[in-house]
Amino acid sequence: MTAERILPQADAAPQLSDGKRVIVKIGSALLVDKERGTVKRAWLETLGADLLKLRERGQEVLIVSSGAIAVGRRHLGLPARGKLKLEESQAAAAAGMVRLAHAYQEVLGVHDVTVAQVLLTLDDTENRRRYLNARNTVDQIIRLGAVPLINENDTVATDEIRFGDNDRLAARVAAMVGADTLVLLSSSDGLYESDPSQDPDAQHVPLVHGAITPEIEAMAGVKMTDDGSGGMVTKLVAARMSMAAGCRMVIANGLADHPLARMEDGGKVTWFLPDANPLTARKQWISGSLSPDGAIVVDAGAERALAQGKSLLPAGVTGVEGDFERGDSVVVKSAAGELLGRGLVAYSAEDARRIKGAKSKEIEDILGYRGRDEMIHRDDLVLD
Ligand code: GLU
């Protein structure tokens, strides 16, 4: 890759303030005093003030925080440094997460912001049903005005079934909740073309556009300082996942106070910019990669509504074919059998059959629970 392709255009410098739904991932090295097993409170307060500024200008904020194991280990009498056995890490995470969550709530609570803890396992992001549950819950927390505080559920995660690093967890969460900006705060200020500790002329890379090429990957082989589990290689994996979901990602050095304000004041960072936005990326994924599990047949009124960009409501559904679960991919067909598009359905085939033709407000009476108003939400629908 040539320097011209990775250097920013003067008129296209990405701004944190352009993000609508922003995830900030905080590495352990920034947050935890390892010797004492305490949260670095003064630093966290400056981060809290920065996050508040984002919220005040109308941006949605989610936190993915590391540090549970680093905080918890000292309080269980485990050594401050060195690798722990799996079961020790699991116990340390349990003890540490309480302190971590408490610290975030205290710091943001000063500004009347409620923090809501969400602990996820790899399964929660891979199993379709659990994925949808997690997505809806995080979405609901944001809608209710609180800040989701997300970490891996290290206490129940075992070696084979864990992310292990929060860089990739954060990228997966970004895809899950349709975030448009992911900020990785760590002790690194991003990518260099060569090792800055060896080469005083090492060139910093401020912007990567569209794809992680082998040239970019080669740069990550260069040793970067990072105390967390991540390192630059996992940050690039996270960048690839994030860009595939249409979410921009930025690596910024968060060691000093007010890390987000510093970044906005021109601090050294590396941005990774995707070609698509989250909604387009999601729609590409829906139309491209899924084999349908069933079909929904709609009436003429619904067909017109879909063409106008509306969601598919149960009232317009006349038939349900096949066997599928909530969140599966289905095709949408007209009464004449013409293929209209495809989407992710909000109900299982069994429930869809029970509510077809019904008004959305009748759903709860029929099914005994209050599901979504739409059979297929327009964000989950791609027309042919
Ligand atoms: N989930 C781990 C913790 O909270 C951190 C993983 C990481 O360092 O990325 O301790």
Detailed description of the structure:
With 384 residues, the protein is of the alpha/beta class. It has 2 domains: 13-281, Acetylglutamate kinase-like (Carbamate kinase, 3-Layer(aba) Sandwich); 290-383, PUA domain (Archaeosine Trna-guanine Transglycosylase, Chain: A, domain 4, Roll), CATH 2.30.130. 39% of the residues lie in helices and 20% in strands. The protein has 15 helices and 17 strands. Strands 5-6-4-1-7-11-12-10 form an 8-stranded mixed beta sheet, with helices on both faces. A 5-stranded mixed beta sheet has the order 14-13-15-16-17, sandwiched between helices. A two-stranded antiparallel sheet has the order 2-3. The longest helix is centred in the N-terminal third of the chain and has 24 residues, at 86-109. The radius of gyration is 23 Å and the shape is globular. The model is unreliable at 1-11 and 222-228 (pLDDT under 50). The chain binds glutamic acid (GLU).
List keywords for this structure.
alpha/beta, five-stranded mixed sheet, 20% strand, 384 residues, Carbamate kinase, Archaeosine Trna-guanine Transglycosylase, Chain: A, domain 4, binds glutamic acid, disordered N terminus
